[in-house]
Design goal:
The complex is a heterodimer of chains A (159) and B (290). With 159 residues, chain A is of the alpha+beta class. Chain A contains five helices and five strands, in the order ββαβββαααα. Chain B has three domains: 47 residues, Uridine Diphospho-n-acetylenolpyruvylglucosamine Reductase, domain 2, CATH 3.30.43; 116 residues, 2-Layer Sandwich (Uridine Diphospho-n-acetylenolpyruvylglucosamine Reductase, domain 3); 112 residues, CO dehydrogenase flavoprotein, C-terminal domain (Enolase-like, domain 1, 2-Layer Sandwich), CATH 3.30.390.
């Protein structure tokens, strides 16, 4: 077995250290080593977006990032989206709009929505659907999800 | 994933030394969107991943109207389409980098990686060929250059020899009254592998009435992406009228030697070549006239 690597990075604003094997993906390190199980393993090959995290401001599939690559970098996971008192407006809109059934894809959709709204605070429906094309849901169909995304943009606009 | 080692060298010399030492037991990691899945699924048997993203040369992204465009081999798609100067001068490249995968893939995937992965259906490659791209390859003996159309040698196979790394892609400066475009056909709206892909680049004369130069390249119709030189040549000197465009489309179709698979049979793919060559040319002409 290859020697374990000691990785230092920032996760959700907190300086974090962990040990990983060189073969571990970021998703494996988050879930198995750091016990942050919010990011889900759906396809494990970059098609479904369930494992989405934001790495140095960019939306990525954490199954397609090696854990060792995050040395010195900063990431946001679904665990960092709500604050202690309340849910993030995106999470509220998903909840109120019933934009989920089984919930496996939801953390990924919320991270993708966060990345979308940071880049484009007022997306059209077409833009939202285009941006979320890398996230798959096998339960709801996408209409409720897209409505929740557009609603989130509206809520954020009112604040 | 099987047990591997991970190295993150900081210089080209260090990188080529590792690659020379390990040979085909090592594979370069840039965006990782192909290689990580291949290793995980046992489709590629290696002992080491060599992450090149700390090597400055592979991260270069620069455009100078006098010197041309340089795209480091590890530069992700998103940085290319977010660069306003590059987007303006090379909209054909933007066509390609904006439709490779979804946003998450574009955050990581690089044109250099798309080229090294050497898929016959690679979306990134045809327009690089059409735009006369050149690959700069660094190796133990120094740097050598190869035109993009010669880089892939078969499905999943490329020109790189032991110890070599694709360092960057270079393109000539944007010519006056020129335009390029990439189009692919997929049965979905997003996130699919091209049934056929077509990249074209043309240059018009000063009056924007005659074609001075044209290159047409195809994907997913041969073991490697294909430059169809005679299809481009058929347009040179013409007014890009219907007859000339039909001739170019027919020559492109004749050069296409597709296979039949679940994405489409050979006859269907040949038909698509004709349709896409016409449509891509229409876009490139429009851009050249702007």
């Amino acid at each position: 077995m290859s020697k374990k690597l000691h990785i230092t990075c920032t996760i959700n604003g907190n300086a974090t250290e962990f040990l990983c094997e060189p073969r571990n993906s970021l998703l494996e390190a988050l879930r198995d080593e750091l016990k942050m199980t919010g990011a889900k393993e759906g396809c494990n090959n970059g098609n479904c977006g369930s494992c989405n995290v934001i790495l140095d401001g960019r939306l990525v599939n954490s199954c397609l990032v090696m854990a060792a690559e995050v040395e010195g970098r900063s990431l946001t996971t679904i665990e960092g989206v709500a604050n202690k008192e309340s849910l993030h407006p995106i999470q509220k809109c998903f909840l109120e709009g019933a934009a989920l059934q089984c919930g496996i894809c939801t953390p990924g959709f919320i991270m993708a929505t966060k990345a979308l709204l940071e880049k484009n605070p007022h997306p059209t429906e077409h833009e939202a659907r285009h941006f979320l094309a890398g996230n798959l849901c096998r339960c709801t169909g996408y209409d409720k999800i897209i409505r929740a995304v557009l609603e989130s943009a509206e809520c954020a606009g009112k604040k | 994933m099987k047990d591997i080692t991970y190295a993150a060298p900081r210089t080209l010399a260090e990188t080529t030394a590792i690659l020379n030492d390990k040979g085909d037991r090592a594979r370069i990691l840039a965006g990782g969107t192909d290689v990580i899945v291949q290793v995980r699924e046992g489709r590629r048997d290696i002992d080491a991943l060599v992450d090149i993203k700390r090597v400055p040369e592979v991260n270069e992204l620069s455009y100078d109207p006098a010197k041309g465009l340089v795209i480091g081999a590890a530069v992700p798609c998103c940085l290319i389409y977010e660069n306003a100067a590059i987007a303006k001068a090379y909209p054909g490249i933007i066509d390609a980098v904006s439709l490779i995968g979804g946003i998450q893939i574009q955050s990581r995937a690089s044109l250099g990686g798309n080229l090294c992965n050497a898929s016959p259906a690679a979306d990134g490659i045809p327009v690089l060929i059409a735009l006369e791209g050149v690959c700069d390859i660094a190796g133990p003996k120094g740097i050598r250059s190869v035109p993009v159309e010669q880089f892939c040698t078969g499905p999943g196979k490329n020109q790189l020899q032991r110890g070599e790394i694709l360092m960057r892609l270079r393109f000539p400066s944007k010519k006056a009254a020129s335009g390029a475009a990439y189009l692919r056909f997929i049965p979905r709206n997003e996130m699919d592998i091209a049934v056929v892909g077509v990249g074209v680049a043309i240059q018009l004369n000063a009056a924007k009435a005659k074609c001075l130069a044209a290159r047409i390249a195809l994907a997913a119709v041969a073991p490697t992406p294909l430059l169809v030189a005679d299809a481009g040549a058929a347009l040179v000197g013409t007014t890009l009228d219907e007859t000339a465009i039909t001739k170019a489309a027919n020559l492109a179709q004749a050069a296409a030697k597709p296979i039949s698979d679940m994405r489409g049979d050979a006859e269907y793919r040949k038909h698509l070549v004709g349709v896409l060559v016409r449509r891509a040319l229409a876009i490139a002409i429009e851009r050249a006239k702007q």
